[in-house]
Amino acid sequence: MRLLITGATGCIGQYITEALTTQTDHELFLFVRNPAKLTVDPQQRPGVHLIQGDLLDLSPLAPLLPTLDGVILTAAAWGNKNAFAINFEQTCALLQQLDPQRCQRVFYFSTASILTRQMTPLPEAATLGTAYIRSKYECLQAIESLPVGDRVVELFPTMVFGGGADGKRPSFITKGMRQALKWLWLARFFRVEASFHVVHARDIAQVVLYLIEHPEYPVPRRVALGNPAITVNELLTQLCQAHNLPIYFQVPLTPALVNFFIKVFRIQMSPWDYFCLNYRNFSYDTILNPQQLGLKPHYATVVDLLE
Question: Residue 157, exposed/middle/buried by CB under 10 A (0-12, 13-18, 19+)?
Answer without folding.
Answer: buried
